[in-house]
Specification:
- By secondary structure, the protein is α/β, with parallel strands linked by helices.
- The chain is built from 4 helices and 7 strands.
- It has a 7-stranded mixed beta sheet, sandwiched between helices.
């Protein structure tokens, strides 16, 4: 999908509010085939669209690659997730336990900014049970359905969201 140029002739880039909105929409809708395992892609100039990206995890157990516009993809070769670097900090999407402490390492390769938000795509253990690697003051955002499911669980690996959206 090609986005129109703005008044300066540049294509719009994904901002903090746009990432949260599109990330929650894509993730909660189980983007790319049913489980939220897909990666929302932006073009090299930050425009919304898609193109294949396939970094190899290599010897460190993970790979991180910029998709565009401050949006990054991180993979351990089995699970994929994404994060965005904004002016105020990092917005992470999901926290696969298979990435574990490698997720913050991948973010640190890109920026020294703190993780300020964590977006849950859904409540499955394989997507969010690594949430404990992030600081306790991170705002966790999820859709209301996910928040309600997690409220009924007593799983310390999956902290309940601090904000639920419709």
């Amino acid at each position: 999908m090609q986005q129109p140029a703005n008044s300066s002739g540049q294509k719009p880039r994904l901002n903090r509010r746009g990432f949260i909105a599109s990330g929650l929409g894509l993730a909660s809708g189980c983007f790319a085939g049913g489980c939220g395992c897909g990666v929302a892609l932006a073009g090299a100039g930050g425009e919304l669209g898609s193109r294949p990206v396939n970094p190899s995890p290599g010897g460190k157990g993970y790979a991180v690659s910029e998709i565009g516009g401050g949006l990054y993809w991180v993979t351990d070769g089995g699970y994929n997730t994404m994060f965005a670097v904004t002016a105020d900090g990092v917005i992470a999407c999901d926290a696969p336990p298979s990435l574990g402490l490698n997720y913050p390492k991948a973010i640190a390769e890109v920026t020294s900014k703190p993780v300020t938000h964590l977006i849950y795509s859904h409540e499955h253990i394989d997507h969010i049970a690594g949430a404990g690697v992030f600081p306790k003051n991170v705002e966790i955002i999820a859709n209301r359905h996910t928040a309600n499911l997690l409220a009924g669980r007593t799983d310390t690996r999956r902290p309940p969201p601090t904000r639920a959206i419709a």
